[in-house]
Amino acid sequence: MHAVASDGAGGWYLGGDFVRISGVERLYVAHVLADQTLATWSPDVNGPVYALAVDGPTVYIGGRFSRVGDLPRSNIASIDAQSGLPNVWRPEPNGPVRALVADKGTVYLGGAFDHVGDIERNNLAAVDAASGLTTTWNPDVNGDVAALAVTGANVYAGGSFTQVGEGAARPYRRDQRRDRVRHDVATGRERRRDRDRDPRRRRVRRRHVRSDRRRPAQQPRRHRRRDRHSARVGSGPERSGGIDRRERRPRLRGR
Amino acid sequence: MRDVPRNHLAAIDVPSAGLVVWDPDVNGDVRAVGASAGVVAAGGSFSAARDLPRAHVAAIDPEMGGATLWRPEAEGVTAVVTPESNAREADAAQPARHGRRGS
């Protein structure tokens, strides 16, 4: 047994090197209920599970495997806590995952890998809990990470390393910007609806349109400025380009 | 990016991914970490943290990085520590720590 995580209802998710629990086949993961009976939950993993994290309706497993059910999943997977089926979430670290923590929309994974997906990450990485994409967070640890804990603003990592990168200054800004953009995307729809409902806002918008009509000479200039801005945003990385495009829409409507 | 020495246990800033000054300097592999606002507990195959003798289990001050007075002297390699609120409680609740040899 390598990993135990509470299901929040008195029961436990178990991960390890087993293929059978109390005589019943359970491949490397199992769910024991509060009354100590074995739940029917049985994701079919094809290798040992070293780490578990439960986050609401999701059970994250980390280990040394390549498949969950009929689907390819390298060393980490997100599994539905009800059905036991793997979610569409594939960070794909290229080595075993020994530690996992899910915290505030981010999944931290530690182990013995040098890539997560196509991105270079040495033994410790963070991936987005929703998309499974590797974030810019890159501590660069020079040896295996076997344990992780998160409190407040720190991630504590334990393992067999002797050096940790100092952290680059640039990812900090990028991280912050992405967080801001993400946040706007997440709440964007809500906010837009609120704005439309707000009669004051509506009035401002109408007045703006009227003033534009009165002074048509200003319109082309404003368009140009807006275009320049959108070109700058659009030239960013492919991923944030998609986010920005969605984020821009409510701003245009607000005018 | 410059690499900074950190033996077996490190704290990394969440927003920046920058290494925190915190350095308990554990002299062997760490297999388990539990953290709360008041204490960071570590288990593994070590015998000292910053020259203070701590066999397999240590509780470390999250501010200073030094081992606290808590010294349970586990006999086996400790592979699990609970991320419970307090390491002292973990000591009182024996099932919270498991020697690796037994599991």
Show unreliable segments of chain B. Answer: 84-103
Spatial strand arrangement across the major sheet of chain B: 3-4-7
How far the N terminus sits from the C terminus of chain A, by CA atoms, comes to 59 Å
Principal-axis shape of chain A:
globular
Would you identify the CATH H-level superfamily of the largest domain in chain A? TolB, C-terminal domain
Give the count of structural domains of chain A: 2
Q: Oligomeric form of this entry?
A: heterodimer
What string, H for helix and E for strand, traces the elements of chain B in order? EEEEEEEEHE
Largest beta-sheet characterization of chain B: 3 strands, antiparallel
State the share of residues found in helices of chain A, binned by percent.
25-40%
Overall tally of domains of chain B: 1
Number of strands of chain B: 9
Largest sheet: spatial strand order of chain A:
1-2-5
Cα Rg of chain B: 13 Å
| Backbone CA Rg of chain A | 23 Å
Description:
By secondary structure, chain A is of the alpha+beta class. Chain A has 2 domains: 3-165, TolB, C-terminal domain (Neuraminidase, 6 Propeller), CATH 2.120.10; 171-254, no CATH class. Chain A contains 4 helices and 18 strands. The longest helix of chain A is centred in the C-terminal third of the chain and has 29 residues, at 169-197. Chain A is globular and about 50 Å long. The model of chain A is unreliable at 168-198 and 224-250 (pLDDT under 50). Chain B is mostly beta strands. Chain B has one helix at 87-92, and strands at residues 3-5, 9-13, 30-35, 40-44, 48-49, 52-53, 57-60, 78-80, 98-99. Chain B has a 3-stranded antiparallel β-sheet with strand order 3-4-7, with no helix packed on it. A two-stranded antiparallel sheet of chain B has the order 5-6. Chain B starts with a strand and ends with a strand. Chains A and B meet through strand 16, strand 17, strand 18 and helix 1 of A and strand 1, strand 2, strand 3 and strand 4 of B. Strand 18 of chain A pairs antiparallel with strand 1 of chain B, so a sheet runs across the interface.
